[in-house]
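User: Batch of two.

Assistant: Item 1 of 2:
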Amino acid sequence: MRAELETLPVRMADLPVDERGYPVSWFVAWQDGKPEFRAMDGEKWMQAVRFKLCWVCGKALGVYKTFVAGPMCGINRTSAEPPCHLECAQWSARNCPFLSNPQQSRRDLAGASLVDAPGFALQRNPGVTLLWTTKTYSIFNDGHGKPLITFGEPESVEWIAEGRKATREEIMNSIATGMPALVALAQQQEGAMKHLMETKERFVSTYVPEAA
């Protein structure tokens, strides 16, 4: 494994490691014998939800389940990805090249269509990562026959940026730069703008820490 990476949590210790020295999360799809980090394994998604398995290590979850998300997903309490163990989520947020580096752009997968993704995907690096730990979640239809997940009430919320605790300024900047896409979507639906702004304000006042 790469020298700069933190020691893996026990549950992640038996994950395979790719040729660059990065552990391959359980959910990653494999193509031609190599991990394709930009694609998730659809069968693993169904197993994770049905059997309550960690999205990162593939082992059974306990009472607490942690979602790894950007702030926009936090505002909507919605994700396309199942939850993880807290320690698996924390390690990923601090060590994943995409999550830990705000300058790392999202690499498009050749031949993949964004139309096929459930919900409304924001194709950006949010710069900060939200870890939303809850006891419950539920599945719903995105209106196009694809499943999305709603977070339950949080037991704890943690923010990480560049491998450390995120500042309020970083979180608020991420929210500000992500809002235009949600506003554009809300403007297409009657009453959605009012709901979005109220939800955003409630999210900020409740879950974004005050400046140190």
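Item 2 of 2:
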Amino acid sequence: MKKENKLVWTSIFTAVGASLCCITPVLALISGASGVASTFSWLDPLRPYLIGFTILVLGFAWYQKLIPITVGTKKEMDCDCETDVKPKFIQSKTFLGLVTGFAILMMAFPYYSSVFYPKTEKEMVLVEKANIQTINMDIKGMTCTGCEDHITYTVNQLEGILTINASYKQGNAEIEFDTSKTSIEEIEKAVNSTGYTVISIEPK
């Protein structure tokens, strides 16, 4: 039973670890400590291995939970000992099912993390064409869509931002803004405040 418990807690730990780099930006936004958003970005290369390990651990835990029911039937029938002892909740299939569900939610977190970010609807304003500028920022530290959402949300808080398209796959953000309302320096400062790092800026 102790071995089963260790497997369960190991699966929880690895499932959380697999998406920790994407969970941190959301926690940072909620707590207001946005500067720690990229703290666990170094875990991203390990994500496939952590997910695979979690699946293996949970699979083995379910194997141990289900197989004894069939394999040990004869032995149990030959035994006159008490067999109606109800297992503790932490040793039950229900608990293992809850842990499995939690692990799946954690591993899938990057795909639905955007629901935690408030929608920032921009008001339509008239902008002189001469004041519109577009820049491309190369950004270090983004590892998932949650990182994109975090940067998009933060930059959109600045006045004068017209559009922003952040991409963790390309490691950049293309931003269109009104130069009479904000500046490249302010945008760079906003991005850096999230914990990710602007490594280059190229006007388009």
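Helices lie at 2-31, 47-71, 73-77, 93-107, 109-112, 145-155, 184-193.
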